[in-house]
Amino acid sequence: MQLSGTFNKLKLNILPQDRPWIASSFIIAALVSLPVFAVLYLALSPEENAWQHLYDTVLPYYVKNTAILMLGVGSLSFFIGTGAAWLVTHYDFYGKRILSWALLLPFAMPAYVIAYVYTDLLEYAGLVQVTLRELFNWSSGDYWFPEIRSMGGAIWMMSLTLYPYVYMLARAAFLEQSLSLYQASRSLGSSPLGFFLRVSLPMARPAIAVGLALVLMETLNDFGTVDYFAVQTMTAGLYDTWLNMGNLGGAAQIAMVMVITVILLINLEQYSRRKQKQFSARNSGRKMPAIPVKGTKAFIIFLLLLFPVTFGFLVPFGILLDFAIRYFETSWSQRFLGYAWNSFSLSMGAAILALGIGILLTYSKRMNQNILTQSFVRISSLGYAVPGAVLAVGIIVPFAAFDNTIDAWMREHAGVSTGLLLSGTSFAVLFAYTVRFLAVASGAVESSLSKVTLNMDMASRSLGKSAGETLKLIHIPIIRRGALTALLVVFVDCMKELPATLILRPFNFETLATHVYQFASDELLEQCALSALVIVVVGIIPVILLDKAIRQD
Asked: Which of 1, 56, 129, 197 has the smallest set of CB atoms within 10 Å of its CB?
């Protein structure tokens, strides 16, 4: 009786035919959470405990720099993203149609790529300073120029590529707001700015908070930019402790601090809007009116919106294109084709795997509305919140333990060595990509599947079709567009992923992202510009899809 009461409290009503779906959800949740638990285990029981040394020396410095970087990037991304979303949504001016989607273009530009480009452009021997010295006949001591390789430079570089997270969610939130609220606010004497500050912005706060949370997690995940700019964040410290000092336990302890930081971010975002409840009013098909502006005001708005597009995409894209054309014969080689194949094959494999698992999880959640299944699905989305460097540490530990165990057993019983079966292989990279971006795929699939009425499920089941047949014959054809979108977005995210790839890739194995990192770090941006350009061009695909989705919604 007590056990039955417990199941009732948990809202468990598991039928025999549903058990395979729940079991599969449990297995996926266990695999996804394995890296996190591995990091925690290694951090709490390392072979060489470096915690006190880290705490007394470098850890406070890492935490301080990380906090400053996240605060700066978060603040700039908020002002650029929210301001751009408001101007595009509520004002009608010349060029609005182009800028509304062009503001998403920096989303295609990885932060480490834009960092390499602007360093080459703005450093002492770069085009800008050389031109200034020639024009004004200056010597090195005659003028001051901001240092690009600094904390401020890192904040600007990352903000220019990450603000689209805030922009697209804020824009969607502004477009969804009720026309009746706007009319009521205006009838009470509120100006457009007053409506924005008192009504529209507070209502869009949940969406903006989610966008900022994504920005901060991506900031915490970044390695290429902070490493190139010599900004010692926790991610850079993790690499230094592990790869340069050879202390995996110390790296795991830094990774544990990063995991705690992510958990605090997520809970802080949820806590900040715990008392907010919002309900949408009917718009009767009418859109929020866009205020026509002309003349000087329209020109100022146009320039303000053109700023992030120009410096976040057009300038770096133009420089990469110029380098790629001028050094095409040097760049286009069998090695480049090999790097491209490695990137495309791994990214597409991870995208297909993530999409398949995402469909499985989402459909299991749809059929089993109980707390057990909901918990498994929620845990399976944990990977996206975990920085790539932390994920790599959490994967290499259990994979190496598995390899060593199998190798020792085979040596003892068969007299042969199996070597590395999982760690140091392409499978480890594929696993990391799938775990990290599974939430992206399952979220897109769930969004599409939620629009399919449950009556279709019941009709199919009443005609004798099993759950698997219903998924194959009914749901997959209906959600194919959403599934294709998920596939492309995960593919592009995998193409750009750098931290996990650097750690987990096999020896002498390069992707386009690691190739760009290696050459740009050696001041050879020209020779890797073609690789960077391919990553950026591929990244434009989800930009087009995101803009289309916002317009349709």
From this structure: 1
Q: How confident is the model at residue 269 (pLDDT cuts 50, 70, 90)?
A: low
Distance CA 129, CA 215 (A): 31
Q: How confident is the model at residue 63 (pLDDT cuts 50, 70, 90)?
A: very high
Q: How far apart are CA 501 and CA 342, in angstroms?
A: 11
For 447-473, what is the mean pLDDT? 77
Q: Which helix (H) or strand (E) holds 387?
A: none
Query: DSSP states of 485-527 as a string?
Result: HHHHHHHHHHHH--HHHHHHSPTT---HHHHHHHHHHTT-HHH
CA–CA separation, 155 and 529 (whole Å)? 23
The Cα–Cα gap between 515 and 336 comes to 9
With 0-12 / 13-18 / 19 or more C-beta atoms within 10 angstroms meaning exposed / middle / buried, residue 136 is exposed
Quick one: tokens of 10? 């948990």
Instruction: List, for residues 25-34, the tens digit of each pLDDT value.
Output: 888 888 888 8
CA 487 to chain centroid: 15
**Separation between Cα atoms, residue 333 and residue 271, nearest integer Å:** 53
Q: Which residues pair with 91 in a beta bridge?
A: 291
Q: Which two tokens stand for residue 523?
A: 């001041």
Q: How far apart are CA 7 and CA 14, in angstroms?
A: 10
Cα–Cα distance for residue pair 152/122, rounded to 1 Å: 14
- How many C-beta atoms surround the C-beta of residue 298 within 10 A? 17
The predicted model gives 238-249 an average pLDDT of: 81
Q: What percent of the chain has pLDDT over 70?
A: 88
Strands 291-292 and 91-92: parallel
What is the spatial distance between Cα 62 and Cα 54, in angstroms, rounded to a whole number? 10
Contact by Cβ (8 Å): 304, 200 = no
- Tokens found for residue 513: 């992202």
Helix (H) or strand (E) holding 91, with range, is strand 91-92
Per the model's pLDDT, the better-predicted residue between 189 and 55 turns out to be: 55
Rounded to an integer, what distance in angstroms lies between the CA atom of residue 226 and that of residue 39?
Answer: 23
Measure the CA–CA gap between 445 and 82, rounded to whole angstroms. Answer: 27
Say which residue the tokens 């707001």 belong to. Answer: 177
Judged against a pLDDT cut of 60, whether residue 521 lies above it is answered with yes
Q: Token pair for residue 270?
A: 């949820």
* Burial degree of 194 (CB within 10 A; 0-12, 13-18, 19+): middle
Which stretches within 91-191 are classed as H helix? Answer: 96-102, 111-122, 127-136, 151-176, 179-187
- Rg over CA atoms, the chain: 25
Kindly give the interhelix angle for 371-380 and 19-44, rounded to the nearest 10 degrees. Answer: 50
Q: Distance (Å, rounded) from C-alpha 240 to C-alpha 232?
A: 10
Report d(CA 452, CA 359) in Å as an integer.
Answer: 14
What is the C-alpha to C-alpha distance for residues 115 and 118, in angstroms, rounded to an integer?
5
Of 294, 328, 353, 320, whose CA–CA distance to 95 is shortest?
294
